[in-house]
Amino acid sequence: MGSREKMTEYVEKRASLGAVEAADKACRRRIQMLLDEASFVELDSLAESRGLAFGFERPKVAGDGVVTGYGTIDGRLVYVAAQDPSVYGGSIGQMHALKISKAVQMAAAAGVPFIGLYETGGSRIEEGIVGLESLGALIADMTDASGEIPLIAGVFGPCAGGAALLAGTSDFVFMTEDKAVISMIGPLVISAVENKGADNAATVGNATVHTESTGLAAYKAADETELIGAMKALFNYLPDCAEGFMMPGDETDDVNRTDSALDDIAAGLDQGYQVRDIIASVLDQESMFETYAAYAPGMVTAFGRLGGTVVGVVANAAARIDADMAAKAIRMVEFCDAFAIPLITVTDSEGYVISQQAEEDGLVIAATNLMRTFQQAAMPRIGLIIGKAYGTAYLTMNSKSSGADVVYAWPTAEIAALSADTAAHIIYRKEIAAASDPASARQNFVDKYADEVASPYVAAGLAHVDEVIQPAATRPRLISALNMLTSAY
User: Fold this and answer.
1) Which one-letter DSSP state was computed for residue 123?
2) DSSP 8-state symbol, 464
3) Is 352 helix (H, G, I), strand (E, B) or coil?
C-alpha cells in the first residue's frame, strides 16, 4: 500500500470513527458538559480489546467502551475517563482498564486532577483473569495517585464489584438519584440470595444509601446536569496536586467585614442556633460548599474561601459526637492535610455520645483516630471555640494539644473536663448536702466552677487559648491568623 492509499485509508477510518463520536453518546455528552468548550483532546481512541476469551468473543470496538483524554475546566487542566454504557454495558476489559490507568498516570505525572465518569456492568467476563488483573492494576494506580492529585468520581449508573472500587478510591463521589448504584455485589444477586423482591433490590447501593448511611458519596444529584454542575463547583475549591494552590484566590469580600448578627447568636447560644449560619457569615460571601451534608449531619464539613484563600471547615452541629461524625471529620482533615489546604474548626460539644451501643460500636477507636489525625496533620490550623468544649471533645476537636496553630474563643466558650453543673456536684457534693439551702449552694458552686475553671479567660490566661474575641469580629481575626500562618508555612 502506497502513501496515498494509506492517507485515504486514514481519512476513511477517521470518518467512520467521527460518525460514532458525533452520535449522542452519554459518555461524550458528559465530557462535553464537564469541560470547557472545544478543550477535550482524546487519547487511545483506536484501542481495542485483546487477550483471553472464554466461550465467546465479542466484536472489537474502537475505544473499547471508554473515552479518555484531557481538557480544561475554567482553564485548568484535568484528565478524564468516561465509560460508554452503549459498548457492552460499559464493561471493563483489559484495554478498557489500561486506558483509564494511562489517564490516571498521566494526571499524576502532570500534577493535575483526574475525574472518572462511571457507568459499568463490571468486569468483562470473557477476558477472565486478564481483565481482572488489568482492573486490579487500575485500582493500584488510583491508590498510588490518592493524596497526590484530587480524584473525583461521577457515577451515573451501575458500578458493582471491582468497578465499585474505582469510586471507593476516589476522594469525592457524586451520584445521580435515579440510576446510580455502587455495590460490591449486584442488587439482583443480593435480592435473590436474601429472597427479597425486585423493589428491595432497587435500594441496594443507591445514592440515598451512600449519601445518608455509608458516607461514600459526597453528593446526590437529581440528574446528570446537576451532578456535573456540582462536580465543577467542588473543582473550584480543589488544588491541582499535593503542593496545594500555587496562586492565591481573588478577594471578593471585605477582609475587615464584621457581622453583628454573630454577637446576637452568641448572646442566644443557650437557646439554640445553626452552626452553618456562623460558618457562612465568617467565610467569603456565597463561598460555602458543604460536603457529605446528609451523612452524620451532626458534624459539618465544608470548603469555602476566607479572604480569597480556600479553606476546609469542620464544625460541631450536634451536642455530642458519635463514631460516624468522627469519621466524617477525619476524612476532611486528611484531605486538607494531603493537599495543604488550611483548616478551620468550630467547636461546641459536650463530649462523645453516651450509650453502651456506641461503646460497643467502637467509639473509643473513632475518638482516638480523630485525635491522631489532628496530631499528625501539618497544614495551617485555626480553632474557634464558640460554646462548650468538654473533655475529649475539646481534646479531639483541634485543641492546642492536638497541634492547632491558633485557637480563639468566644466569651461564651466553656472549656473544662466536665460541665460546670456536673463538676460542682462531684467536687462539692458534701458542702451542698450540708448547706441549709442545698439548691442555692449548688448554684453558687456551679457558678464558682464556671468562673474559676471553665471560663475562656482561664484558658487564655494559661495560653491554651490565644485570644478571647468578639463574635462579630470573628472573620477579620481568622483572616489575619490565616495570612500569618500561610506566610509562615
Assistant:
1) B
2) S
3) strand
Q: How does strand 381-390 pair with strand 414-416?
A: parallel
Q: What's the rounded mean pLDDT across residues 449-453? A: 71
Cell of 142: 488510583
pLDDT tens digits, one per residue of 27-61: 999 999 999 999 999 998 766 767 655 556 666 77
CATH of segment(s) 260-413+465-488: 3.90.226.10
Burial class (CB in 10 A: 0-12, 13-18, 19+), 440: exposed
pLDDT of residue 95: 86
Nearest by Cα to 389 from 326, 340, 280, 316: 316
Q: Are 104 and 69 in contact (CB under 8 A)?
A: no
DSSP character string of 185-251: S-HHHHHHHTT--HHHHTTTTBHHIIIIIS---SEEESSHHHHHHHHHHHHTTS-SSTT--SSPPP-
**Burial environment of residue 2 by CB neighbours within 10 A (0 to 12, 13 to 18, 19 or more):** exposed
3-235 and 260-413+465-488, same CATH topology? yes
DSSP at 450:
I
In the chain, count of helices (H) and strands (E)? Answer: 20, 18
Per-residue confidence band for 23, with pLDDT thresholds at 50, 70 and 90: very low
Q: In the chain, where are the structural domains located?
A: 3-235, 260-413+465-488
Mean pLDDT of 322-335: 97
Q: What is the pTM of this model?
A: 0.90
Half-sphere exposure of 407 (CA within 13 A, CB side): 25
Superfamily of domain 3-235: 2-enoyl-CoA Hydratase; Chain A, domain 1 (3.90.226.10)
For residues 72-85, average pLDDT: 95
Question: How many Å apart are CA 305 and CA 320, to the nearest integer?
Answer: 27
